[in-house]
Write a structure and sequence with these properties.
heterodimer, A: alpha/beta, TIM Barrel, eight-stranded parallel sheet, B: 367 residues, alpha/beta, 14 helices
Chain lengths: 366, 367
Amino acid sequence: MNGAPAPPIRPIDCDVHNAVPSIEVLYPYLEDHWRDYLVERGVTSLEPNYYPRGLPISCLPGARPSSGGPPGSDLDLLREQVLGGVRYAILNCLYSIQSIHNEDWAAAMATALNQWQVEHWLDLDDRLRASIVVPVRSPGRAAEEIERWGDHPGFVQVLLLARSSTPYGKRHHWPIYAAAVRHRLPVGIHAGGVTENPILPVGWPSHYVEDYAGAAQVFQTQLVSLVCEGVFGKFPELRVVLTESGVTWLPALLWRLDKNWKGLRSEVPWVDRPPSEIVREHVRLTVQPFDGPRTAEGVRRVMDHLGSDELLLFSSDYPHWHARDPYESCLRHLSAESQRRVLRENSLATYRLGPETGPDGDGEHG
Amino acid sequence: MVEGVAERAPERTRRRTTIIDCDVHNSVPSDAALRPYLPARWRRYLDLVGHKGYHSLERGYAYPKISPGGGARVDAWPPSGGVPGSDLDFMREQLLDNYGIEIAVLNCLYRAGEQLNDEYADALATAINDWQVEEWTGRDSRLRASMVVPYEAGDLAAKEIERLAGTPGFVQVLVLPRTREPLGRRRYWPLYEAAEHYGIPVGIHFAGLTGNPITSSGWPSYYLEDHTVMAQAFQSQVISLIFEGVFERFPRLRVALVEGGFAWMVPLLWRLDDLYERLHEEVPHLRRRPSEYVREHMRMTTQPMEEPERPHHLLDLIEQLGPEMLMFSTDYPHWDFDDPNRAFQVRLPEEVKSKVFHENARGFYGF
């Protein structure tokens, strides 16, 4: 993409967005009651508001479908612009069912959306994988949704959004993690989410740019919550993928959290080793945006501070355009070995992508 | 990055460095101590209602700290009785004389600015400031103080700044980072206008409670979290101050970020500069990159210092941030006190050490 040199291997793109072209496409998957509910009340869209149409971040140049649908809604265009260059693309559908307060409606919409993902995406291209959208406000219902799709080979992740009503470490969210672990699915936390709490922890900002800049802080606080509540002790097989989180904030957070843990750990005796160790074992981050310095030496230091090239997963965030191309911002500065890990191997170790037979994985039957 | 640096130099090889401590806490011993400084109307209010802030406990915190006394060092309780930080003689013995501190900036954390009643907050702030002159800055020439102001009411805060501007000893306006709205919002502009007019920096200091959860995903469970993610509240305030254009509107305003940590600033600026490149059209009132505003207008205190697993990474960080950005602080008498002789787990180059331990603060506060 963007004229970057073709990578030596076909990467796994861990963050691609498929969009609902219009709410009517979900009608076939909804019971009469909910279809009537949408029609009678004039509900025409659940698109989130964090991709303002006019801002350049919302769409890569050339990624708006000629059909007039939202960016990411056209599979043919996705094939042309993304799938030709990747082994797999993991879809994160951001249709905002998480914003719905009505528990039953949210659950019905999640099931419909997932069924639509199977029929209109996964069944049509074997390079696609998808994330299970869940009604996160009712963790029990979310776990049921994971059970519903957990054995489908096309679904490889549970999708949560970074802004939640309560921190994700809190115990009432644990049924989600139990279900994810049962099906060997990582939990992907993606930028965005509900906004019943102010979108900055100090209140409501004026500008979109503050909203998006603040998203990195949301990930930081969610990670602190997951670690301190003991989620990874309770679910040792759980993997969490921070998606579109930014990357470079991680060392500073871990240095602070490790120090505080040393002083305050009597409060959380179940956190029995330094948080940085727990995070390196259980958490991965996608590289778009990287939010790094502009020099090779600067990126080398970031990698040194991160402590491992196994933490990073390649992603494009297609069709959005918040940041510089990940090849330019990060990958070109890495060694060939690190590139191979970030582009592919780390994702194969994280996601349930099936057996890979050749060095390039091309013998895999998808 | 420097390879092979000594991870902790032996005590005896250290030369005494001049120290300006940019964060020391003097405590109001009790409400009674403020009564002589309150007008009759607010003495009566204190009796009738007393303090009423954002949370529902009559005293204490929903996230109990690691120790009593507002999270004090266990050895910081003065032998005279009273709470840690309330006894000047003991503070002299334990901090000022013990470490040879040349100047200490006092940040009194009595919760005036968090009162829901703005006018009561104003009366408390005035009383605390008069008490600070009487009991602290007037009694030891090494002490400087931050003005306590009712920062949620920008007009009242501006009046208090104006009242104190000629009073020796006050060097900073104190704001806590947990505000009702982001600090770039215009309700706070009168405070900045006054601070800029009188050439007094604004210090944003760790602490505070509001009705806003400390994460934008709600309230966490533990003090460990509350303490750790205060750094994210600071980051949000930096974002707000920059993008609301506060430094364009008040070009001589200076802001110290106190007790918020500093390691996060470097990656935050990478992110903000990148975003500005793509989204500058939304904020045409900005004329420079976010990092330029920060480097010109902001300084950060060192405590609680982040501790990388590999200590030499701290040197990388200081180099990336710029050693001119940092001002040393101890946070006496709190539990996470940084001892000037031990806080840095690596040996700093001499010129960096001079900047961090005294030169930067001298320039910023005009000592």
